[in-house]
Amino acid sequence: MEKQVNSKQRIADHGEVYTDPREVNAMLDLVKYQTERIDSLFLEPACGTGNFLTEILERKLQVVELRYRKSQLEYERNAFLAVSSIYGIDILEDNVVKCRNRLLDIFDQKYSGLYKKAAKEKCREAVEFILERNIIWGDALSLKTVGDEPQFIVFSEWKPLNGSMIKRRDFMFSGLIPRFLPKPDLFPEPDLFSELGDDAFIPKPIREFPPIHFQRVADAEQH
After folding, report:
1. Is 207 part of any domain?
2. pLDDT tens for residues 96-135?
3. Which residues contact 187 (CB under 8 A, 6 or more apart)?
4. What are the residues whose beta carbons fall under 8 Å from the beta carbon of 157, sequence distance 6 or more?
5. Helix (H, G, I), strand (E, B) or coil at 178
6. 3 in a domain, yes or no?
7. What is the predicted pLDDT for the residue at 175?
8. Does 166 fall in a domain?
9. What are the beta bridge partners of residue 207?
10. Residues of the domain holding 28
C-alpha cells in the first residue's frame, strides 16, 4: 500500500496528502466511460506524483492495446493520443518530475512489452516531449509556473489530422478556466466551459505550429 503522506512539513506547507489507489479507482469509475475514451481530456490541477493520471493512462492504454495491438503504427498513433490527452499541474517540482517519469514508464513498459526490439526510440522521445509540455510545474491558483521567472501557464493541444500528422496549438491556461470562480476579475472574457449557445467562447491559441508527424513533435520546437 502506498504512503498517503510524504512528510508533516509538506502537509503543513502545501496540504499534500496522496490519494489511496482504492479511492482513485472508485472516483474514476464514476466517469468510467470517459477514462476509457482514448481522446478524452483530463486535467489534474494538483496532480502530485500522478496517482489519478497514471490510472487514467493505464485505462486508456488498455483500450489502445485491445483495439490496435496487431498494427504497431496504429498502436503508436493511438498511444500517443492517449498520452497527449492527459494534463497536470503541481506546485512541487519533485512531484512533477516523478509524475512525468511514472507516466513515461507506463507507456514504455507497455510499448516495449508489445513490440520489443521493433519499438522506436523516436516514439519514446515524442511521448517524453508531450509529458514535458503537459505536466507543468506551476500553481493552478496563480495560473503561473513556479521557478525563477514565473510565466502564465500555457498548455498545448495535440490534434490528430489525417494519417500520422499532428497539429499543435498553444493556449493560455487562464483562457480555459470557468468564469464562475471566486475572482472573476481575473477572467474578463467568457470561456471554453461557459454555457453552450450563441455566447459560447472559443479560446484563441497564442501560437500555432504547422502539422508534423506525431513522432517528430519535438522537432517543431527547434524552429
Report:
1. yes
2. 999 999 999 999 999 999 999 999 999 999 999 999 999 9
3. 174, 175, 177, 179, 181
4. 168, 169, 170, 171, 205
5. coil
6. no
7. 84
8. yes
9. 170
10. 8-222
